[in-house]
Specification:
Layout: H1 7-12, E1 14-18, E2 21-24, H2 25-54, H3 60-85, H4 90-96, H5 98-107, H6 109-124, E3 132-135, E4 138-145, E5 149-154, E6 159-163, H7 164-168, E7 173-174, E8 182-190, H8 196-209, E9 220-226, E10 231-239, H9 245-262, E11 274-278, E12 283-287
Antiparallel strand pairs: 1-2, 3-4, 3-7, 4-5, 5-6, 8-10, 9-10, 11-12
Length: about 290
């Protein structure tokens, strides 16, 4: 390198050659400038454009999803433009690696499925950050939705990483999807000598005492069946406190047990009649 070169010649001097791609100071400056402009555009779009849009969308989960999706798009476009400033032909790259991409795609099929599912979640918002969902029998609150995986915090405060495809393809219950109440139930069996009407009154009185239960629609009691060793009832109630539903059911069971004991209504345990054939006469004996 000649130190008597002008500033223009220094900037255009190819001091690195990698795989036939010559890098000069001016090219690296352009590369850094594209990255910088991409960051500025992302900041401007989020702070100015999206902020005005978010004033009309009072949904933190949806706001987060849209913001993440915009960030991914801007990063991708900025990266592609930055590669072009280095003199890398994207067309040649894709054409030259076509066979490699086919094999890579087959091996990454599930990851690609999760990736597409993540884009669907971020745009469709069928599941958003903050929603209470049931996935594979686990109830949890969505903490983060990424491009490939999402994080769900269970009631035990355990963070579970779930592939996005499970949130899109599998059957998922989203308890926060609307503001309507959902119906739940608590089952109980009483002895055959109990008065069904008295059982109904006790169950409804307990439901009225539970503050988290909705008054409209009102709780109801169904006489379900004549069981093998008990008369079986179900207390149906509505609530929108989905996150605390297991605790609410537990409180109801505590109250039901205490009320039945006070009313001297027996809650029987399962019983089985065993018939024993004895001797040649075929005498039967009954045991409980």
């Amino acid at each position: 390198m000649d130190w008597n070169m002008t500033i223009k010649e220094i900037l255009e001097y190819d001091f690195i050659d990698i795989g036939g791609i010559s890098l000069s100071a001016i090219i690296l400056i352009k590369f850094a400038l594209v990255i910088f402009i991409g960051r500025i555009l992302l900041w401007f779009f989020i702070k100015q454009v999206l902020r005005r849009f978010f004033q009309k969308v009072d949904d933190p989960g949806r706001q987060f999803a849209i913001q993440q999706f915009v960030r991914y798009i801007v990063y991708l476009v900025t990266f592609l433009f930055a590669l072009q400033t280095l003199g890398i032909s994207l067309t040649a790259v894709w054409a030259g690696s076509a066979a490699l991409l086919v094999g890579f795609g087959l091996g990454m099929q599930q990851n690609f499925n999760d990736l597409v599912s993540g884009i669907i979640l971020l745009t469709e918002s069928s599941v958003a950050v903050g929603d209470v969902v049931t996935v594979d029998g686990i109830v949890g609150r969505v903490k983060r939705i990424g491009l490939r995986t999402s994080e769900v915090e269970s009631m035990d405060e355990i963070t579970i990483v779930i592939p996005n495809s499970k949130l899109v393809v599998d059957k998922v219950i989203n308890w926060s999807y609307n503001d309507k109440h959902s119906r739940f139930q608590v089952s109980i069996g009483v002895a055959y000598d109990a008065d069904p009407e008295e059982v109904r009154k006790i169950l409804l009185r307990i439901a009225d005492s539970q503050m988290e239960l909705s008054t409209q629609p009102k709780p109801t009691v169904h006489f379900v069946e004549f069981g093998d060793s008990s008369l079986n009832f179900k207390l149906y109630f509505f609530t929108n406190d989905f996150w605390e539903i297991e605790r609410i059911k537990s409180d109801l069971r505590f109250k039901i047990f205490a009320a039945m004991k006070k009313a001297e209504i027996e809650i029987p345990f399962p019983q089985t009649d065993v018939w024993v054939r004895s001797g040649k006469e075929g005498v039967r004996e009954t045991e409980e």
